[in-house]
Amino acid sequence: xxxxxxxxxxxxxxxxxxxxxxxxxxxxxxxxxxxxxxxxxxxxxxxxxxxxxxxxxxxxxxxxxxxxxxxxxxxxxxxxxxxxxxxxxxxxxxxxxxxxxxxxxxxxxxxxxxxxxxxxxxxxxxxxxxxxxxxxxxxxxxxxxxxxxxxxxxxxxxxxxxxxxxxxxxxxxxxxxxxxxxxxxxxxxxxxxxxxxxxxxxxxxxxxxxxxxxxxxxxxxxxxxxxxxxxxxxxxxxxxxxxxxxxxxxxxxxxxxxxxxxxxxxxxxxxxxxxxxxxxxxxxxxxxxxxxxxxxxxxxxxxxxxxxxxxxxxxxxxxxxxxxxxxxxxxxxxxxxxxxxxxxxxxxxxxxxxxxxxxxxxxxxxxxxxxxxxxxxxxxxxxxxxxxxxxxxxxxxxxxxxxxxxxxxxxxxxxxxxxxxxxxxxxxxxxxxxxxxxxxx
Length: 441
Ligand SMILES: Nc1nc2c(ncn2[C@@H]2O[C@H](COP(=O)(O)OP(=O)(O)OP(=O)(O)O)[C@@H](O)[C@H]2O)c(=O)[nH]1
Ligand SMILES: [Mg+2]
Description:
Elements (H helix, E strand, L loop, with lengths): L6 E4 L8 E7 L3 H9 L10 E7 L5 E10 L10 E7 L2 H13 L6 E2 L4 H8 L5 H12 L3 H13 L6 H20 L8 H27 L3 E7 L6 H9 L17 E7 L2 E7 L9 H13 L5 E6 L5 H10 L6 E5 L12 E2 L6 H7 L2 H8 L11 H11 L2 H5 L4 H19 L4 H12 L4
Guanosine-5'-triphosphate binds next to helix 8.
């Protein structure tokens, strides 16, 4: 994959937003900055500067923050600059066009993952750390997020695979020694197979224990139900901070179930907006209401919304329809319009999101249904896949009687570990043969 040349790419999506960020990495960074700003950055590194960028015709492209990181003190280890343009995709296209017009040989758009790749080549990150960056971005469980952060910030040694790698090298050393020193009694075939069994047993155990833990999203599922027109969709939109559900004063506006995830107070929720309840439901509305009922088994907690016009009978039917026991909160809406006498939670659309969520005691609800204590993970998804691959060798090794073939399979396992941790060469192996087995003192 590696090709030389200076590379650039946006590191935020190219959509209308407050900022669009670009990173440039390679030998030509200083020259590019000079051409873009008419300033020499060589003595101005690792500092944010707000500066004008110019197009080739001398007109202003943008005035924005720019940081220059001098090699080797940068993410890739090369000269790097990061440019934070105003978030217009049009400015971004002018920026790319300007870079092209510089006609700097080798200056090109980066391939996927090329910045991380260069950081590994220049020993700024291990392969594992580079992969951890991907995992941090893509995972959605707090436990694996914490693990991947640890991996990135503290290095390979915190990986749960490290001790298995050591055991694999030990085992291979012993096998190698037993081949090279056949007469030595210390090397016994049965003993080697026993050790191999223990090694695979450990892999298997880890896999069983960790697989489910990583999938646990620590997510609390809540559902908004209530008579038509009470303000379910209004609350739904407030919770997720988006105008996603249609809100009108027409009864029966919501017909299908909508769902969205949101994070509050460091806790993850999935909220469902549902079709309202009324005696004379239209056909589509009825289907929507039924769909919500079917989903109710998966729901941790219900918010039963009502307003001035809702009746006790309606609340009773809702509880019955959704099989609700104690897992609900009664919420009275539109408290800006009506005075309620009850002790139920009261909300209205003028309240800030945080205030509404606090009134609904949403953090406590999360705590009640989802164990908030983040379980400690020692492996990420990639490492779990890796262990699954390693276990495929188990049958071949344990059923083989030729030590030479076992040695070859074991070398394959070490090669697999090499992809995770960097190459394990024969020197590592011989070091152990001599130090562990006192050969040739
Ligand atoms: N004054 C006042 N009006 C509100 C409040 N919340 C919602 N509304 C209004 O009530 C009407 C119905 O709101 P929705 O959020 O669509 O109610 P819904 O429960 O989703 O209704 P359906 O989908 O038809 O079941 C809209 O006109 C809203 O603007 C509130 O707190 N105060
Ligand atoms: Mg609605």
